[in-house]
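Researcher: Next sequence.
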Amino acid sequence: MRARIEELDWCDSPIGVISLRRRHDSLLGLDVYEVKIDDEFLMSSYFNASEIALATLGLAAHPGERLSVLVGGLGLAYTARAVLADPRVEALTVIEAVAPVIDWQRRNLLPDTAGLAADPRCSLVHDSFFALVAEGRAAREYDAVLVDIDHTPRNVLHPSHADFYTPEGLARLGPLLTPEGVFGLWSDDPPDAEFEAVLAEVFTHTESHVVSFDNPVTGGESACTIYVGREIRRT
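Model: Next structure:
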């Protein structure tokens, strides 16, 4: 008989000790996979609607075909899996700063996304998304850049991330995006008017989508925000 809680992996990282565990939830009748940083819960396999929405809403904003997509932050890989479910996507690159998170996919530790690393369209890259943008190290342009790393633009996992959420930081996405390119961002808070203004300063078209989902822990409903910007303003 398996233990009710099983720690599958853990390691030190620049943002703290990151760990993956499997927990059997008897009320839900299923295994839940959870990621923690130190003692703080970061994500759960049960709450994946918003991660999927980041992919579907972001890609829905692009009118083209034969898309190349960059995802910042692998996490439990629900965004990456949803990107690959779009038949227009020909290539996906995922940038992840914590190497063992990539290894979880290569070892197929997460049943919902097993096989992702073997998909020939998918490339998992160990790097810092924020450093790649700030240093202009992107090797190509992408039709969509989708980011799910920090809790919100105001509540970041590391102080070095904060600059990305400024007009100057987002403008550095220019070399990464095609002319009709889309930027999508997950946030755990309701729409933030100040960040919406920043987004509108950088992109020609912007939207904020509130994604609601059932929360069995509270017995109610929870929500997050998916920000979408299209056609970066170029000087």
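Model: The chain has one domain: 47-232. The longest helix spans residues 49-60.
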